[in-house]
C-alpha cells in the first residue's frame, strides 16, 4: 500500500481549508505543523465574527485597498498564526503549508513567528501579476526555507 507523505496530507488539508473561505476573489488555506502534528490551521477571510464577504457582497466581494487587495480580509497564514498565538501554541520550528505563496507582509509575520520552513502550491506573484514572489525571496534570504510544493 502506497501511503501519502505527511507533506501531501498537510497540503491537501490546506486546499480543503481554502474551500471554507468566504472571499469572493480568492480562496487560500494554510496548515502549520510540527513533525507529524497539526498545530494550527487557517483560511483567508474577514476576522471571525465580523461578516462574510460572499454573503454581503456576493458579486464584487469587499472593497479593495490601495493595492487592489481585500480591505477586510486576513490572509490564511495570518489566521493560522494568530489562532496558534491566541491559544498559546509555540511556532518555533514549525512548517507552514499554504496554497498560495506568502505575500511580503505575511512573510514578515512568518519569519517573526519562528516558522522554519514554508511550502506553497501556487505563486502569489503569478496570481497578482507581480515580477517576483517578494515574500518567498524575503523568507529565503533570512533563512526560512521556502519552496514550491512538489506534488
TrEMBL record:
| Every CMP/dCMP-type deaminase domain range | 5-133
Record's keyword annotation contains Hydrolase: yes
Keywords, alphabetical: Hydrolase, Metal-binding, Zinc
A single GO cellular-component term from the record reads: cytoplasm
Gene3D superfamilies, per this entry? Cytidine Deaminase, domain 2
Show the active-site residues. 77
Superkingdom of the source species: Bacteria
Residues noted as binding Zn(2+) in the record, renumbered to the chain: 75, 103, 106
Which PROSITE patterns would you find in this protein's record?
CYT_DCMP_DEAMINASES_1, CYT_DCMP_DEAMINASES_2
Required cofactor(s): Zn(2+)
Q: Which InterPro entries match?
A: APOBEC/CMP_deaminase_Zn-bd (IPR016192), CMP_dCMP_dom (IPR002125), Cytidine_deaminase-like (IPR016193), dCMP_deaminase (IPR016473), dCMP_deaminase-rel (IPR015517), Deoxycytidylate_deaminase_dom (IPR035105)
GO MF annotations for this entry?
A: dCMP deaminase activity; zinc ion binding
A single Gene Ontology biological process assigned to it is:
pyrimidine nucleotide metabolic process
Q: Which family does it belong to?
A: Belongs to the cytidine and deoxycytidylate deaminase family.
Q: What is this protein called?
A: dCMP deaminase family protein
Q: What species was this sequence derived from?
A: Mucilaginibacter mali
